[in-house]
Write a structure and sequence with these properties.
It contains ten helices and 21 strands. α1 crosses α5 and α5 packs parallel to α6. The protein is of the alpha/beta class and 449 residues long. The chain is elongated and about 70 Å long.
Length: 449
């Protein structure tokens, strides 16, 4: 108890009030909250918020505030509105092994002792949070990522871990642009002792900042936050983590009886191929992204080797094909009522040609076509990873149907001969050959007039 009181005093003494909750950069009014139907996030005025993220996990440890602003300015040009940042960095996430920043600021005045937070370190972190707010960005802020800090949490025990969380809830309580995200390759979450110390931090944050939205990233190769019963009452946002076809786990989460908004927190990164995965080729990134967007999520994160490590050459490797095409996806869906799309898992709209649903296929070879439609029949969208003929039940649309192909490699549309079509019977659609990137994936968009 004495330790908790001392931490609270420190937090109150050093707290910095962030800029106003209404953000001029985006128009969103933070903090975010869960929609009434529990399918997506909204801002304080009820505007749906689609997570369009990157994962600069090493930002606090490896960048100065000036370089952090450089990074955020660049990402804002691509429509990025969310950043995954590890509050405590380490060698597991490309920082100094002892958690000190690049310029020597340690997170704790006694190494490894969670009860001795260093005000200078947490002030530096707070500057990053404030910078993100000024760029209109939400931070998925990991309080003690488990890839590198689990041993420290274990050594400190549950009580100190919870007190550390209480400190964080107070220290960062004034900031409206934070979603707390515990875990990060939390491979041992099924171990009760490990789960206890990690969840204790989250419980501590809730103790002093009960309104804060929280989530957790569990284990690869496939997981979601709600897989762990311990976290179901803590999290308000269900983070899907998968190196398999993203639609499979996302659609499974969508069908939970007690569901929460889902988002794809991590899949393959550009310029990387981890063991046992298919790697972040440009086409694989597109598959992950469009499968995700049509599987009932409130958004997703992109990342590259350079953007998550923020090490050598990162400044000259930000403007990549991967993030450009990610921005095409973002623009395509944000221009439409993405939040009303219901996944067509039972193939009531896209009735033929959708391929084989698989939880384990290689992303390289998986060609499953995901589709979704709005309940009012005004919009239906399908993503075809390869050229083939698909059949649509046109009666699911509410009026004459304007049909177009969208090329996800060039951000351009191609009209379909004969459009508009009657909203009756079935109709076949075949993409116009390869796209401008030389691949076979296309997006079919059907809009009822």
């Amino acid at each position: 108890m004495a330790g908790t009181m001392r931490w609270a005093s420190l937090a109150m003494a050093t707290i910095v009030i962030a800029s106003g909750s209404a953000n001029a950069a985006t128009g969103y009014v933070f903090p975010l909250k869960v929609s009434a139907n529990h399918r997506y996030l909204i801002d304080q005025t009820g505007v749906p918020f689609m997570i369009v993220g990157d994962a600069p996990q090493a930002l606090v440890g490896n960048l100065s505030p000036a370089d952090a602003s450089f990074f955020m300015t660049n990402r804002a040009r691509y429509g990025i509105n969310t950043l995954w940042v590890n509050l405590l960095c380490d060698s597991y996430t490309a920082c100094n092994s002892d958690g000190t920043t690049f310029d020597g600021i340690a997170p704790f005045t006694t190494a490894g002792d969670l009860s001795t937070p260093n005000p200078k370190y947490f002030d530096r972190a707070a500057k990053m949070v404030d910078l993100a707010a000024k760029h209109g960005m939400v931070l998925l802020l990991d309080p003690a990522e488990t890839g590198g800090w689990l041993g420290v949490l274990q050594a400190n025990g549950v009580d100190k871990a919870r007190a550390y969380g209480q400190f964080l809830g107070t220290r960062f309580g004034a900031y409206k642009n934070i979603i707390w995200m515990s875990g990060n390759d939390f491979q041992s979450y099924a171990n009760p002792d490990d789960d206890a110390v990690v969840s204790a931090v989250a419980e501590g944050i809730h103790d002093t900042n009960p309104a804060a939205l929280q989530t957790v990233e569990l284990s690869y190769l496939v997981s979601a936050s709600l897989d762990d019963p311990t976290w179901r009452r803590i999290v308000g946002l269900d983070a899907v983590y998968t190196y398999r076809p993203t639609y499979a786990k996302e659609l499974l989460e969508y069908r939970r009886t007690l569901f929460k908004p889902t988002f794809m927190v991590e899949a393959n990164y550009e310029f990387e191929m981890n063991g046992g995965t298919d790697g972040g080729s440009i086409q694989n990134l597109r598959k992950q992204e469009y499968w995700t967007a049509l599987s009932g999520t409130t958004g997703q994160l992109y990342a590259s080797h350079y953007s998550w490590t923020l090490t050598g050459g990162w400044k000259t490797n930000l403007d990549t094909t991967g993030v450009l095409q990610f921005s095409y996806m973002r623009h395509f869906f944000q221009q439409r009522p993405w939040y009303d799309l219901v996944p067509d898992r039972d193939h009531q709209v896209l009735t033929k040609g959708f391929g084989r649903f698989s939880q384990t296929d290689s992303i390289d070879t998986d060609t499953y076509a995901t589709a979704a439609a709005t309940p009012d029949g005004k919009l239906a969208i399908a993503y075809l990873p390869s050229v083939r003929t698909v059949t649509v039940d046109m009666s699911k649309l509410s009026g004459a149907v304007s049909a177009r192909w969208f090329d996800p490699t060039s951000n351009s549309f191609a009209s379909i001969a004969g459009s508009p079509f009657a909203n009756s019977g079935s109709r076949d659609f075949t993409p116009p050959g390869t796209n401008k990137g030389g691949d076979g994936d296309w997006v079919l968009m059907l809009t009822a007039r």
